[in-house]
Amino acid sequence: MALRRFYDWQGDPDDLAGFLNPRNWPGRYWAVHDERGALVGFFQFERDGGTIEVGLGLRPDLTGRGLGAAFVQAGLDFARRHYAPERFTLRVATFNRRAIRAYERADFVSGRVFTQATNGGLYEFVEMSRPA
Fold it and tell me: How far is CA 126 from CA 34, 75, 116, in A?
């Protein structure tokens, strides 16, 4: 399964090291917990002027249940309150149609398509954006 291999943290040791370094967390990475306190995912927000680039991950066993758009929207609502951006952007692998549909349901539109080396291979990505 392409998604499983692509999103395996062990596939990109540099990304994993950055993610696990607590010095990188404040104001950048945010954990998302359910009402019982269980971790359900995370958001990463990177400011570039008035734009916030969004990174996110939903716990794998929660994907495919129709939760994606609401999860994305909750993260955007949080980012609006904490960063007051003008625009949101994100990048997603073009083969991840399910994620792209969730982002489209959250009013992101596709833009530039590009190839990037990551996780031991070259992959096509699409940049998506929307007003904040």
Answer: 30, 20, 10
**N-to-C CA span, the chain:** 34
pLDDT in tens, 72-118: 999 999 999 999 999 999 999 999 999 999 999 999 999 999 999 88
Q: How far apart are CA 125 and CA 35, in angstroms?
A: 34
| pTM of the predicted protein model | 0.84
Closest CA relative to residue 100, chosen from 111, 92, 88: 92
